[in-house]
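Researcher: I need the complex structure. Ligand is adenosine-5'-diphosphate. Inputs:
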Amino acid sequence: MRRIAIYPGSFDPVTYGHLDIIKRAVKIFDKVIVAVAHNSEKEPLFSVPERVELLKKATKGIKGIEVDDFHGLVVDYVRRKNARVVVRGLRMISDFEYEFQMALTNRKLTDDVETIFMMPSEAYSYLSSKLIKEAASLGANLKGFVPGFVEKAIKSKLK
Ligand code: ADP
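Model: Output:
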């Protein structure tokens, strides 16, 4: 049986933190599907197709990766993909409460999907897409946070 994991999120945009988790996940699973959620509650900087494109470019060369997008519940998407595992990143204790709630809600919705949490390198444990966008809007250099082409994309959006 092929072990497929789904790594869902907003990825608005992809950062070195996300890439760190992706690289760890592909060592454990045969295939990792990075899935960009269509989430109407948030006001994103990038459209879903733009986020998918940036992810594809950032993960080029990593074997066992697929990038996709999905509507609706994560657990329904996981089932559609014949997967059983959701991967999420845990940066700090502050992520824990939300992630815990979400994992247990998903388990209530379906008990044949498990959530696995992975910790990034400590170098990325403070990185978030939100903070990067704020820093960029104030003119920060994003080297070390996101790949160069992502920095360019953020800056041209913010112009
Ligand atoms: P959300 O689904 O909360 O909008 P994001 O797209 O920001 O999430 O992130 C998707 C997943 O990646 C989440 O599990 C989040 O905790 C994780 N993540 C985000 N940034 C990092 C990071 N710097 N290191 C490790 N995991 C991260």
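Model: Summary of the prediction. The radius of gyration is 15 Å.
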